[in-house]
Amino acid sequence: MPLTVLQTRGIPGGACDRIVAAVEAAGKRTCGRFEAWMTADGRGSVRVVITGPKDFDRHLAFAVDEAEAEITERVRRAVEE
Fold first, then answer.
1. Distances (CA, A) of 50 to 3, 17, 54
2. How many Cβ atoms are within 10 Å of 69's Cβ, its own excluded?
């Protein structure tokens, strides 16, 4: 899989699995290897750092309860920039 979530911290169990799946789904059609690290900020948001080839570095934030499709789309757009 071209986008791999390497670490998650502080994200509640059920939400964590759902969010990881949504983030990884965004990278299924990417060229190159991308990696993501996710952490909960304690205020109901998840912060994501995505790195990749050629010094690629993007930071995103979204609500823990945000729809999976929206998370996937936001990550996909960030990776394609």
1. 9, 18, 12
2. 10
Closest listed residue to residue 46, CA positions, set 6, 2, 9, 72: 9
pTM of the model: 0.88
CB neighbourhood size of 38 (10 A): 21
Give 52-64 pLDDT, tens digit per residue.
Answer: 998 999 999 999 9
For 3-80, the fitting CATH number among 3.30.160.100, 3.30.450.20, 3.40.1010.10, 2.170.130.10 is: 3.30.160.100
- The structural domains of the chain, with segments of one domain joined by +, span 3-80
Which residue, among 37, 53, 39, has the nearest Cα to 4 in the 3D structure?
Answer: 37
Tell me which residue of 12, 4, 50 sits closest to 28, measured CA to CA.
4
